[in-house]
Structures are given as C-alpha cells and as structure tokens.
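Box 3.1 A note on notation
Throughout this textbook, protein chains are presented in two layers. The first layer is the amino acid sequence; the second is a token string describing backbone geometry. Keep the layers aligned when reading.
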Amino acid sequence: QAQLVESGGGLVQSGGSLRLSCEASGLTFSSYAMGWFRQAPGKERELVAGIAITGSRNYADFVKGRFTISRDNAKNTVYLQMNSLKPEDTAVYYCNGYLAAWSWGQGTQVTVSS
C-alpha cells in the first residue's frame, strides 16, 4: 500500500511562493502518474496538477501559469512549485496517484493572506 507524506506548506502573503514536496513509499514510484490535489474548507477536494510517467504535465485552469509540478523518481518525490499565490489558494494540499486510488496522507496546509 502506498504511503504519502506531504510537506512544505505554510503561511505566505499574497503574491508569495511555496514549494511543496510529497515523498511516496510502498510502491514503484516511477510507474505511476502522480497528482497534487487540494481541499479548501467546505469544498470538495479537487485536482490541481498532474504529471505522467513520461513527465508530461497538466494543470487546472485556476493554477495555469502559476504552479509547476515536477517529479524526481530517484527520490520517490513529487513537487509543486507555487508562485503568485492568491488567498483563494488557501487549502490543505495532498498528493496521490493521478487517479487518487491510494489512501490520503495528512496533507500540508497552505494559507495565503491578503
């Protein structure tokens, strides 16, 4: 069973940047497409960005041009570089396989102040 540990969240001012990391274990990481998801209070969890095993990427419209997903297969880690953060980006951020088929980790809180 995959285990996922997210880190890198925090409190940042509007326009600031953060880099999230997610280390995966219990799986052959390089064989899976990965995704970053987020859940804001009172809202459904939503896909933010995905990265295929080939390295191709896709993004939700609300983060295009601001966020970048990447992966390091040697470290079993997927990253999310978040720039030009907005208050509406405030949420708990999670990683998972792209199909979100594994148990969720604890997530990492991102809070953007205006």
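The two ends are 39 Å apart (CA to CA). The longest strand covers residues 18-25.
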